[in-house]
From TrEMBL:
<dbReference type="InterPro" id="IPR050546">
    <property type="entry name" value="Glycosyl_Hydrlase_16"/>
</dbReference>
<dbReference type="InterPro" id="IPR013320">
    <property type="entry name" value="ConA-like_dom_sf"/>
</dbReference>
<feature type="signal peptide">
    <location>
        <begin position="1"/>
        <end position="26"/>
    </location>
</feature>
<keyword id="KW-0378">Hydrolase</keyword>
<dbReference type="Pfam" id="PF26113">
    <property type="entry name" value="GH16_XgeA"/>
</dbReference>
<dbReference type="GO" id="GO:0004553">
    <property type="term" value="F:hydrolase activity, hydrolyzing O-glycosyl compounds"/>
</dbReference>
<protein>
    <submittedName>
        <fullName>Glycoside hydrolase family 16 protein</fullName>
    </submittedName>
</protein>
<feature type="domain" description="GH16">
    <location>
        <begin position="3"/>
        <end position="274"/>
    </location>
</feature>
<dbReference type="GO" id="GO:0009251">
    <property type="term" value="P:glucan catabolic process"/>
</dbReference>
<dbReference type="InterPro" id="IPR000757">
    <property type="entry name" value="Beta-glucanase-like"/>
</dbReference>
<keyword id="KW-0732">Signal</keyword>
Length: 387
């Protein structure tokens, strides 16, 4: 029979595990950054250039100009509006002004991104997106939470990564959406299409919008859409400061990208900044095989740019986002890089910052590649506008 003294080391060992065990069990998510109300736009950078990335026919002005032109504002309901210019008659070969904003902070693995959206942009030529990107894009990953073009009514989610990450069909019952291409490093990314026809565009708006949420976790990336009348209690009762105890009432995600030997998520995704933008035409909305099936009757030229962007702005009366809030939760382990957290519950981590600088060699190598890719994209973009 063991004596009490021989058990003491065991008891000390168990006691030392206590804090660790309780951290693991408390699957609670606290608000690390809330964007809402009059301060919604405080911690976002505005693009300040024409679309030099995807060939779209837009200028995304800097912050002062975007606000002065009334393309981003807080409306009388206290919601943030982000829109395309619908008051200017644009003459060939000019572009139309729109809005693109990116959070100054980047949020590490363990974060959850939630957006309550009352209205989203739609219409021929319109290409809106709510998405995230790594600090070193594209090699630190991209998560497309809400994206589509023209008259789409079903949301297309995607991951974009450097080579090596793929998305095999998850186990039956693990996601409600429909599988698209599976190689996350190819142009389209590895996509999943929502099966619900109110997950995007005009139907989304007529249904009162809803909540999009994405969990960026070591165990994988999971994306949910809750139509306005199907928002779970945990989100209905959430405030700008309250924690969410568990995701159990969120149900099956629309898209599920579990970490596996096909793609270890933390290997391919570093801390992510959120991006909201509205593009026009460009590589996606303007591609003839995508544009023509929905929008061929839009104008005489059967081309995205001249039949939409050119001319009066009334074409874009519905080309706006209206957000009740965008909110980022952390799991107690997730880091926030850059900016300052309003709630201070997740301190900026010097540990993560130094892990970024230790990957500096890789980053410099890839900068050359990225610059080259951008140059090609810019040339393709100019070509697509001229034609
Ligand atoms: C579009 O934005 C640019 C850059 O801010 C500005 O110079 C231009 O006047 C704007 N165009 C319109 C029609 O407001
Ligand atoms: C949307 O889908 C529902 C069933 O899920 C169907 O009843 C309805 O007709 C569809 N609406 C449109 C506009 O396609
Ligand atoms: C522009 O669109 C908004 C809705 O986004 C609408 O309220 C406004 O009347 C439109 N402006 C013009 C000049 O049509
Ligand atoms: C905690 O964060 C670190 C650094 O981002 C990450 O490597 C690790 O996998 C995370 N652990 C959990 C349980 O989220
Ligand atoms: C595109 O514009 C952004 C914003 O001005 C700038 O930071 C970036 O360097 C530009 N990229 C290219 C390839 O010109």
């Amino acid at each position: 029979m063991p004596t009490t003294s021989s058990l003491l080391p065991v008891l000390f060992f168990l006691a030392s595990l206590g804090p660790l065990l309780s951290t693991v069990q408390a699957a609670s998510f606290s608000v690390v950054q809330d964007f809402s109300g009059s301060t919604f736009f405080d911690k976002w950078d505005f693009f300040g250039n024409y679309d030099n990335l995807t060939g779209g026919a837009v200028v995304w002005p800097d912050k002062a100009d975007t606000l002065a032109q009334g393309l981003a504002f807080i409306n009388s309901a206290g919601n943030a509006v982000i829109k395309v210019d619908n008051t200017t008659t644009v003459l060939y070969p000019n572009k139309r002004n729109s809005t693109r904003i990116t959070t100054q902070q980047a949020f590490g693995v363990g974060s959850i991104f939630v957006a309550d959206i009352v209205h989203m942009p739609y219409g021929c030529s319109v290409w809106p997106a709510f998405w995230t990107k790594g600090i070193n894009w594209p090699q630190d990953g991209e998560i497309d939470i809400l994206e589509g073009v023209n008259l789409d009514t079903q949301n297309q989610m995607a991951l974009h990564t450097r080579a090596g990450c793929s998305h095999p069909a998850p186990a039956s019952g693990a996601q409600t959406g429909t599988m698209g291409p599976t190689d996350c490093s190819q142009d389209a990314g590895c996509t999943v299409i929502d099966t619900r026809n109110n997950s995007f565009g005009q139907n989304f708006d007529q249904n009162g919008g809803g909540i999009y949420a994405a969990q960026f976790d070591t165990s994988g990336i999971f994306i949910w859409f809750f139509p306005r009348n199907q928002i779970p209690q945990s989100l209905l009762s959430a405030t700008s400061t309250s924690s969410i105890d568990s995701l159990t009432d969120w149900g099956t995600p629309a898209a599920s990208y579990p970490s596996s030997s096909s793609c270890d998520i933390p290997t391919y995704f570093d801390a992510q900044s959120l991006v909201i933008d509205i593009d026009l035409c460009g590589d996606f909305a303007g591609a003839s095989n995508i544009y023509l099936p929905q929008c061929a009757s839009q104008g005489p030229q059967k081309l995205c740019y001249p039949d939409n962007v050119i001319g009066p702005g009334s074409q874009y009366d519905n080309a706006y986002f209206e957000f009740k809030y965008v909110r980022v939760y952390g799991n107690g382990n997730s880091t926030v890089i850059g900016g300052t957290s309003t709630t201070g519950s997740a301190a900026t981590s010097s540990g993560t910052a130094s892990s970024h600088s230790s990957s500096g060699v890789r980053n410099i190598e890839s900068l050359w590649l990225v610059s080259w890719m951008w140059a090609v994209a810019a040339v393709m973009g100019m070509a697509s506008i001229l034609y």
